[in-house]
Amino acid sequence: MKKQKRIPIFALSLILLAGSSFPAYATQTLTEDGSVNIPLTAVIESNYSVSIPAALTLTAGTEEADGTPFNGTVTVGVKGNISPGKAVVVLPREGVVEGGVLTEASKTAGESAVDAVTTETLNALTDTYNTNITLTGQADPDTSVTVNAASQYVRWAYNGAADLAACETTLNNTSYTNGTVSLSTKISSADTYKGNLQFTFKLVDRR
């Protein structure tokens, strides 16, 4: 009969500890009666998710003397568990696309715009955060129209935040808190018009 090798319990304990992912801390060696404190820490990192549609076609209204109105609504949702004093900024702007992807310059410009969002700049807004998007004619690239994009919210603060600024709301960890971006323009010349609406989002200090 083949003998089974037995691993000593002490050696087995060392093997299990070696395979664990516990962080290493210095060990205290105590040789006298007394008391000692061990600080305890538990961390949940801030996390969030953003819901944004992949594409949108503006809807035509009734033709008017100065053109046909086109409108659309983008619903932006944010949920998550973020620390007090934090917020998620979701900011729309015109995007620059090459080869089907946003250029690095366009991404950098979006990040800079996000970093500039503060309580002071939000409270300077009257009602919505507005930006313009250019749509260019595909048959006639020399023809373009300007779309106004008006955002209901651009900053989602931590759950329970007080003194909300203009264009700011709070989020939670169970369901999306939605805001809208209303798009509007007028077009006179028949053509297919295309453009790019970029959203940049970032976890920031609420300041």
Write the layout of secondary structure elements.
Blueprint (H helix, E strand, L loop, with lengths): L8 H10 L28 E5 L7 E2 L7 E14 L4 E9 L2 E2 L2 E2 L1 H12 L3 H5 L5 E9 L6 E8 L3 E3 L10 E3 L6 E11 L5 E2 L2 E9 L2
Parallel strand pairs: 9-10
Antiparallel strand pairs: 1-3, 2-3, 3-11, 4-9, 4-13, 5-6, 7-8, 7-12, 8-11
Largest sheet: 7 strands, antiparallel
Count all strands and give the number. 13
What is the count of DSSP helices, taking H or I runs of 4+ residues? 3
The helix content is 10-25%
- Give the overall shape: elongated
Mean pLDDT comes to 91
Radius of gyration based on Cα positions: 27 Å
Order of SSEs: HEEEEEEHHEEEEEEE
Straight-line N-to-C gap: 74 Å
Q: How many separate domains?
A: 1
Task: Give the class from helix and strand content and strand pairing.
Answer: mainly beta
Uncertain residue segments:
1-5, 7-20
Assembly annotation: single chain
Fraction in beta strands: 35-45%
List keywords for this structure.
7-stranded antiparallel β-sheet, 38% strand, mainly beta, 4-stranded mixed β-sheet, elongated, 207 residues
What features would you describe in this structure?
The N terminus is likely disordered. It contains three helices and 13 strands; from the N terminus they run H-E-E-E-E-E-E-H-H-E-E-E-E-E-E-E. It has one domain. Helices cover 13% and strands 38% of the residues. It is mostly beta strands. The strands form three sheets. Strands 1, 2, 3, 7, 8, 11 and 12 form a seven-stranded antiparallel sheet that branches. The protein has a four-stranded mixed sheet with strand order 10-9-4-13, with helices on one face.
